[in-house]
């Protein structure tokens, strides 16, 4: 029987759709780990990137953090977190949060930096104060790039969460790692498909959110997001 | 239990005597790491250069190629390794297909950015001087696109060095193999050594490429 037929059989087996090792449970685990990490990362990264970008300070730091983030192997961060904090979701979430932060800092910094200085002058001239200018003029213009950063982080976190199975985490990565260990190619292949679909679904759904959040007025004059800030891949 | 006693049996982050007796192991891991990275970069360049030039010339190619490799880039490496194992087994081919594919996207984007940015009066001048299309591409357009291509190459190199560690899952990994050893044996030294060396490798490669760029494109010192 070909591998694809075995994979179809794996997916149609009702026992794979229930219980602690069932697809619904693993999906919830994977999404929960990822969502918590991205949310925590955003809480830390976005204020930093936005404030630095607004004032235009520590630019090298805001850009450099992504270069460092790229250089640090995600696999190593996971294993180190596991060695320090032991079993459980805490080390996984901490490691994933650490991975989520750099692209969000860099992109939100660049997003605020790229707001047209003329627009800022106009806002100042219209009597906007610092905070009102940031919230009502700069942030709406920065939404596309900020969201691109969140999307990049989220896809990387979903990818790395699959690796968390190596440190006894849950999620779809379990099928890949267990399938490899048991030489059960159907299971391993099915897990790989699930991880791939989840990563693509994350990308597409966050792109959808981005479309909704981008103010209608700037959708027309939207410049393409810079290529370099989007190339962030660690897993 | 007194604290001191507990600390005595805790595995230190670096066990120097293990390290001193395992230099060959570490060097072999570095060598495998570098080899996997270099193949991934050369493979990425071999595909992205002709594709980028073609997509620059025939713009209808642009969206399909960027979309195809964009989707590929979004798929996690562990997922691609696992999808390939039934077909290409555990080994270098399974490791390199995803790594090369990722690099193609990074390089393709930058090649297009670089070629697009060549000023049209420069092209006009080249045409006026009698350059044929191929000579214009090789002697005018590609050199002017080099800074952008180098920028892409640096990002691709640093990313690849990080992702190579994940190929430990399919029995390769270079330094990733030492990270896996640290995990399986709960032994900190190989983990710390491999992490530090992997980061150092990325920084050295990045600096090396920056230096190569200065030599190759002396007019772009500012970037």
Short structural description:
The complex is a heterodimer of chains A (235) and B (223). Chain A is mainly alpha-helical and 235 residues long.
Task: Explain what you see.
The complex is a heterodimer of chains A (235) and B (223). Chain A has helices at 3-12, 23-55, 59-71, 74-85, 89-113, 117-125, 130-163, 173-181, 185-213, 216-219, 227-230. With 235 residues, chain A is mainly alpha-helical. Chain A has one domain (3-230): MetI-like fold (Orthogonal Bundle), CATH 1.10.3720.10. The longest helix of chain A has 34 residues, at 130-163. With 223 residues, chain B is mostly helical. The N and C termini of chain B lie far apart (58 Å). Chain B has ten helices and no strands. Chain B is 80% helix and 0% strand. Chain B has one domain (25-214): MetI-like (MetI-like fold), CATH 1.10.3720.10. At the A-B interface, α3, α4, α7, α8 and α9 of A face α4, α5, α6, α8 and α9 of B.
For the secondary structure, the number of strands of chain A is 0
Mean pLDDT of chain B: 91
Determine the mean pLDDT of chain A. 90
The rounded distance between the terminal residues' Cα atoms of chain A is 32 Å
- What is the fourth-level CATH superfamily of chain A? MetI-like
Listing every helix as H and every strand as E from the N terminus to the C terminus, the arrangement of chain A reads HHHHHHHHHHH
Share in helix of chain A? over 70%
Shape of chain A: elongated
Biggest sheet details of chain B: none
CATH topology description of chain A:
MetI-like fold
Strand content of chain A: under 5%
How far do the termini of chain B sit from each other? 58 Å
Look up the CATH topology of chain B.
Answer: MetI-like fold
| Residues in helix, % of chain B | over 70%
CATH superfamily of chain B: MetI-like
Secondary-structure-based class of chain A equals mainly alpha
